[in-house]
From TrEMBL:
<dbReference type="Pfam" id="PF15051">
    <property type="entry name" value="FAM198"/>
</dbReference>
<feature type="compositionally biased region" description="Polar residues">
    <location>
        <begin position="119"/>
        <end position="129"/>
    </location>
</feature>
<keyword id="KW-0333">Golgi apparatus</keyword>
<dbReference type="GO" id="GO:0005794">
    <property type="term" value="C:Golgi apparatus"/>
</dbReference>
<keyword id="KW-0472">Membrane</keyword>
<feature type="region of interest" description="Disordered">
    <location>
        <begin position="114"/>
        <end position="135"/>
    </location>
</feature>
<comment type="similarity">
    <text>Belongs to the GASK family.</text>
</comment>
<protein>
    <recommendedName>
        <fullName>Golgi associated kinase 1B</fullName>
    </recommendedName>
</protein>
<dbReference type="InterPro" id="IPR029207">
    <property type="entry name" value="FAM198"/>
</dbReference>
Length: 489
């Protein structure tokens, strides 16, 4: 009985399914697609209806976590639809609380806000401001003309603001420890602070022969120094201002002190609002004794210089030169120090002014002046810029324009020709692993120069060049059997 009833109920369903499968394939596909679309429509309609109800509850009562929803705010359909796993919380904006009263404080007075309006200027006031502006522009143009065109050699700049934005209480020389690095003397530190922070009173222009004219700035005379009494160019303490392109003067000063040579004049980097658009430029301590008015430059040809090296002038500790040797008063050790220093910085203007020891560029001075063609007769090439100090046995390294963009395959080895001995202290620094550390500590003192080279990253690139040249120099020393001896007199 039961089986017959089941069969009777199953017969219409089986008959319908068999009839469905006997229909063509295209009609079956259309029926299935219609059923799927109908199901998808009702599913999306129910889903959107659910979230519309939830938005209504959010705007009417505030939103609570769905997991902890109140029974009266959730309808009966919410239990059927699954909740999303990420629960959203919204913090309602609360009222601003008054600050608590702190004991010991004073209640500030209430000040009325005053509306500031742009002041109206009368025609007389406007004309006055325009006249002052034109005068300021003319003064700056006159400064540029007097400085660069050389219309006057002595210019008084007291009427202008020579140190715009400078703070005399803050020095650009950074010495945070009680003592400066040991390679600086007390005089070096004093000179660096003077060059970086001294108030400029007057500027004068001085020709330098083959080199561009040098601008000399004079500070307030605190007391005349013996170096400046021999020249009428400076009545107090002075400094020479170079071009921003010659900032290697500052690096050369620090390298000279780190190596223990002590033959360069103190130099720092400084900004002048009335020169070079405020770019940092080198400032070198003025020393009248190394100028033409003091001691003229040592005149030697390349052949005479090589004969001087062979004669080892003043090699024994004596006050006179060897007889019949054509020696100058310069001590033999000075040429060794000069050759090492010039090779590391590739300064060729002293010992190789005609650029005979390397491949010069078209923009180099020796090519533009045509002196490079004189390399065929090297013995008669005149050396330049060989300066002596008050002690005529010593040299002073001036105009230290080095080149950091010269590769190791184009170094000027002519600077080392004839040198058989080098200073032991300088070579030991080059051999040690402390050259970089010492140069970083030294150059960090000059904040202007440090920042102008791009900070630590830029300074490291310059030291990389010196370290590579130091390795080449040490290889040259070993290959040619050059001795290293103490040269501290």
């Amino acid at each position: 009985m039961g089986s017959s009833r089941f069969n009777s109920l199953r017969f219409p369903f089986s008959k319908a399914t068999s009839r469905f499968w006997r229909t063509p394939l295209s009609k079956r596909s259309l029926i299935i697609a219609s059923l799927c679309a109908l199901y998808l429509f009702f599913a999306l309609f129910g889903y959107s209806q659910h979230y519309q109800d939830k938005d209504k509850r959010r705007h009417t009562r505030g939103l609570y976590p769905l997991d902890n929803a109140r029974p009266d705010t959730v309808d009966s359909h919410a239990s059927v639809l699954p909740t999303r796993p990420n629960v959203v919380y919204i913090t309602l904006k609360s009222k601003r609380l008054k600050p608590a009263n702190i004991r010991g404080t004073i209640r500030p007075k209430l000040r009325r806000k005053v509306r500031r309006t742009q002041p109206t200027r009368s025609p007389f006031t406007q004309n006055k401001f325009g006249t002052l502006g034109r005068n300021a522009g003319e003064n700056r143009r006159n400064v540029a003309q007097e400085t660069f065109l050389g219309e006057t050699l002595d210019v008084d700049y007291k009427s202008l603001n020579l140190n715009p934005g400078s703070d005399s209480r803050v020095s650009s020389i950074r010495i945070y420890s009680p003592n400066a690095p040991p390679w600086f003397s007390a005089g070096d530190v004093k000179a660096m602070r003077f060059l970086a922070d001294a108030k400029v009173v007057r500027i004068k222009k001085m020709p330098q022969g083959d080199f561009p004219s040098l601008l000399i700035f004079e500070s307030e005379a605190v007391g005349k120094h013996k170096l400046f009494e021999a020249s009428n160019l400076c009545g107090g303490q002075c400094g020479g201002i170079g071009s921003p392109l010659d900032n290697t003067e500052v690096f050369a000063f620090h390298l000279d002190r780190v190596l223990g040579l002590n033959r360069t004049l103190p130099a720092v980097s400084r900004k002048f609002g009335f020169l070079y658009d405020g770019q940092p430029c080198p400032v070198v301590l003025w020393d009248a004794s190394v100028q033409p008015e003091g001691h003229p430059a040592v005149k030697l040809t390349w052949g005479e210089y090589q004969n001087t090296l062979k004669a080892r002038c003043l090699r024994p500790k004596s006050s006179s030169t060897k007889p019949d040797s054509n020696c100058s008063t310069v001590h033999h050790y000075e040429w060794s120090k000069l050759a090492l220093f010039d090779f590391l910085l590739q300064i060729h203007n002293r010992l190789d002014p005609s650029c005979c020891g390397f491949r010069p560029r078209h923009e180099d001075l020796c090519v533009r002046l045509g002196s490079h063609a004189e390399c065929g007769d090297q013995n008669h090439t005149q050396l330049k810029s060989i300066r002596q100090s008050d002690n005529l046995r010593h040299l002073v390294f001036t105009y230290n324009k080095g080149f950091f963009d010269r590769n190791e395959d184009n170094l000027d080895f002519r600077l080392l020709e004839g040198i058989k001995e080098l200073p032991e202290q300088a070579v030991s620094v080059l051999k040690s692993s402390k050259l970089r550390v010492k140069l970083l500590q030294s150059l960090f003192l000059d904040q202007r120069y440090w920042e102008s080279q791009g900070g630590r990253q830029g300074i490291d690139k310059l030291i990389d060049v010196i370290e590579r040249r130091a390795k080449v120099l040490l290889t040259y020393i070993n290959a040619h059997g050059i001795k290293t001896i103490p040269m501290n007199e």
